[in-house]
Design brief:
heterodimer, A: about 120 residues, mainly alpha, about 0% strand, B: about 500 residues, alpha/beta, eight-stranded mixed beta sheet, seven-stranded antiparallel beta sheet, 12 helices, 21 strands, globular
Chain lengths: ~120, ~500
């Protein structure tokens, strides 16, 4: 179950609008995917996902000199904070950011809406 | 005959041979043994998936067919995902069906280790001839190349380096780029659709949802296998073996099973070797259609011997491509919008590193650390891959390496060669796993002897890549199948 703080992270990671009509995370139906993930994924993976969301909420703002949680920041700052996780000098922060993006990608890039926009033809 | 352990109750049977694992090694061994007229049981921990059910949903495939939903990692300085199938047919269901014979220079290395008679090139080549015929191995045909495979050919041609269409067991490949999800078009000749049904037709019993927990060993003799079925309540099963137990559960699971069964050797679970790989993305002006073409349809072995690297194309669905693209928010989405114009060349190296495999609280505890030499090879490989991409027309490459710029332009390839030495700065996957129950000509030097039998235990053989004395530098399925065939033929007294 995604909390409002989790939703703020995912909204910052994949916001609505943008290039070529790519939808936002929630417009693409990420919430349904996340429910399935929470039910099916092995415990270490689920713990990793929760840790990634928590790190994005509480640690990423600190990387750009702002106070957490992420949801308090302006939209541009949220994006900057998340990007800073990917460039962090701390390996574990980069890894949890990669996990955050990997899980989100599955629930996003695997949807028909997104695949259609990027020209994926599975036939 | 098939037994579904997910639906089954207690199972207790006696066979001539019990084979643990249904991948390249287990299926090949089972087919050979079944052809002798003896009774054979194949135990597979994962489920049996109807090939008609294969789709284009990567997450669905991860859930049903990959070990730990593809969350298995090797730990060292860096965390490295270790990819393995956990399904009837093993990793052959999810890999790209690549057929590489062991190169001659590798045979020379094995000979130097005293294994020339144990792994004789002539006999293995005879098996490869048969396997290639059985599974229709052929170079990926131009109609299955798609844009991204063609780019490697173009780049290599321009540079004058060697690159070839990959030889695969996928005659009639429909270029859907979906090897990973099992091949919905049915072109891939995985063990699920070839050797396992053939073994079954010769009387082998295929038991799925059956986790082998222990080889039963009494007075130095293997008697059978016990384990748990995946049905509710995890009922136990026993498959007793009159003649032998064949362990073919992979270089991760085989040493764990043997150790749990009481096999003791200083080499068991040690010497874990692999081919670590890392991707390089190139951005082109025109669509490269990363998701339309044979998944791994072209490769370059130009630097296999001098730099121990192999470069291969890889086609992936958007959900997997996106995760590695840089940025977040709008910046990430801008990269996603460009994904169709990208091609990925993956660099894999014949690493020097040796790690270990033990049983851990959440499955296998895999320890693996790349050496400085490995890092040097990888950096060189990334440079070669960038040269190929630029020669093919890439306007920029995205290294995805911490400490390097997000993008490099033509003429900046050298920065990859001078990239960081720390494996934590790179994105990795670990595939092609070897050596954790290695073969040696004398007991103190390995786990199995030249007859594949575990030292100190009769009627117990290991038939998978655990026994390989070295890694290969090329994709191993073909080598695994021939070696498993050799093991089975020796076991049956036919070789």
């Amino acid at each position: 179950m995604l909390s409002p703080r989790d939703r703020a992270v995912l909204d910052a990671l994949l916001p609505p609008g943008g290039p070529e009509g790519l939808p936002g995370a929630f417009e693409a139906g990420f919430e349904d995917f996340e429910k399935g993930f929470a039910a099916d994924a092995p415990l270490p993976m689920r713990l990793g996902w929760r840790a990634a969301l928590a790190a994005a909420t509480w640690i990423s703002p600190l990387l750009i000199g702002r106070l957490p949680p992420l949801g308090r920041l302006a939209p541009e700052e949220r994006e900057e904070a998340l990007c800073a996780m990917g460039k962090s000098r701390v390996y574990l922060i980069r890894q949890v950011f990669l996990l955050l993006k990997a899980v989100t990608s599955f629930g996003y890039g695997g949807t028909r809406a997104v695949r259609r926009v990027v020209g994926y033809d599975a036939s | 005959m098939r037994v579904d352990g997910a639906a089954g109750a207690r199972f207790d049977e006696v066979f001539d041979y019990v084979v643990v694992g249904s991948g390249a090694a287990g299926a090949t061994a089972a087919r050979s043994l079944a052809s002798t007229g003896r009774s054979v049981c194949v135990l597979e921990e994962g489920p049996a998936i109807d090939p008609k059910a294969f789709g284009d949903d990567s997450w669905g495939a991860f859930k049903t067919m990959f070990r730990g939903m593809n969350g298995q990692v090797a730990r060292g300085r860096a965390f490295i995902p270790v990819i393995q199938g956990r399904v009837l047919g093993g990793s052959t269901v999810i890999n790209s069906a690549i057929a590489w014979r062991v190169p001659d220079d590798l045979f020379a290395e094995w000979e130097a280790l005293g294994l020339a008679d144990a792994l004789p090139p002539k006999e293995l080549h005879r098996y490869w001839d048969e396997i290639e015929s059985d599974l229709d191995a052929a170079p990926t045909p131009p109609e299955a190349w798609g844009g991204f495979n063609r780019l490697m050919r173009d780049g290599a041609k321009k540079l004058g380096v060697r690159a070839d269409p990959t030889r695969r067991y996928a005659s009639g490949c429909k270029a859907t780029g979906q090897c990973l999800t099992g091949c919905p078009s049915g072109a891939k000749r995985s063990m699920l659709t070839t050797y396992l049904p053939q073994a079954e037709a010769k009387g082998a019993v295929l038991v799925t949802g059956a986790e082998a927990r222990r080889v039963l060993i009494k007075d130095g003799r293997a008697l059978g296998v016990e384990g748990r079925l995946s049905a509710p309540g995890r009922p136990s099963f026993r498959a007793m073996a009159r003649r032998a137990v064949v362990v073919a559960a992979s270089a991760i699971q085989s040493p764990i099973l043997l150790a749990r069964s009481g096999v003791r050797s200083a080499h068991l679970g040690e010497h874990f070797m692999a081919h670590p790989g890392t991707p390089l993305t190139g951005l082109f002006d025109a669509p490269a259609n990363l998701w339309r073409g044979a998944t791994q349809g072209f490769d370059s072995t130009h630097h296999r011997r001098d730099h121990r690297v192999k470069i291969e194309t890889i086609g992936l669905p958007p959900e997997i491509v996106f995760a590695r693209l840089p940025g977040a928010g709008r910046r990430w989405k801008e990269k996603m919008a460009l994904a169709r114009r990208t091609a990925i060349f993956a660099v894999q190296t014949r690493a020097w590193a040796e790690g270990s495999v033990r049983e851990g609280p959440f499955g296998a505890d895999i320890r693996y650390d790349l050496t400085r030499r490995d890092m040097m090879q990888i950096r060189r490989g990334l440079r070669f891959a960038a040269e190929l991409l630029f020669a093919a027309g890439a306007r920029e490459v995205w290294p995805g390496v911490h400490g390097l710029p997000e993008r490099l332009l033509p003429g900046e390839e050298g920065r990859l060669d001078a990239g960081p030495d720390d494996p934590r700065c790179y994105s990795w996957i670990l595939s092609h796993l070897f050596g954790t129950a290695r073969m040696a000509a004398r007991p103190g030097a390995g786990v199995v002897g030249t007859d594949f039998a575990v030292y100190g235990v009769s009627n117990l053989v290991v038939a998978d890549s655990s026994v390989f004395p070295t890694n290969l530098g090329v994709n191993p399925q073909h080598a695994i199948m021939a070696v498993a065939r050799l093991c089975a033929e020796r076991l049956a007294g036919r070789s």
